[in-house]
Amino acid sequence: MKSHPNKKFKFHNESTELKRFIGDDLSYPNQKNFLEIFDYLEVMEDYLFELEIRNYSRNTIKTYRSILNNFYNYLTNEKELHDDRLVLRAFKRYIRHLIRDKKVSQNYIYLVTVVIKKFFEFGNIHVLEEVKTPKRTKSLPKSLNEDEVKSLINALDGYDPVDSASPYSNYLKLRNKLILSLLYSSGLRVSELVTLQTNSVDLGERTIRIRGKGEKDRIVLFDDATRVLMEEYLEKRQFDSEYLFVNKFGKHLTPRYVQMMIKDYARVAGIKKKVTPHILRHSFATHLLKNGVDIRAIQQLLGHSNLSTTQIYTSVDMQTLKNVYDKAKLL
Question: What is the pTM of this model?
């Protein structure tokens, strides 16, 4: 991470306006607040702009901005921020505040710590060097079984809307069914799905070219059932748009819309589990692994840089493990 070009704040070895932070000049007359000296908000904007240049996703930048703004708002209520020791204590109090008062998860504490430390490093502020990054919890991701996926995709089959202009018109039913089928059969992220362009789809090869996280390209597959749905959808689509999935205004859908739509379909299908686009992605990976697909192939389809990330996404039920174990015939 490059340091902020206009700020050179090395508390431990530079004789600057920040020498109060060094702690070796008790007679320093102007005990300026850390936020004034560091120019927190300006450096934050430079930092987020740097992340944008480095092709961080919009969602990631939005999350980083939220974390840094929340920390800034907390610091504005701190009266004593005149040296590095006090800033360090303020950070630790903030973490304690998140745990005790906000009841946030261990993984969120991990993220907050990483983001703020990286931000300080960008600004050449070294007061958090002694802070150790907490461990993340690795819980087994939830997924749907094959029958639940079928019920979800087919939830509105046989439903005939009386009013063709209703949200459940035949066109919308077809579009939403295709969305569900594509999310599951390809393992797409919802952010990838809503910005999917029509010219990225090859119906003959049943492939889609995806521009994923970090601007990395990959090819994903979809099954024959999804191809049939897509051919019908493209024939009946009501808008000529570069995007595959559009709303009634011809604009591409939002992740929020897809999330709410899936929730509604799960309710109609009688599925009691929480169902999200990400859970369909989990289910895709889990079912491939369960049916003998090599985990490295799954890694490629999901667009993961590290195999360890794919291993978190995949889980196999105990009966499948027992079957594989018994077939191995150790003796």
Answer: 0.64
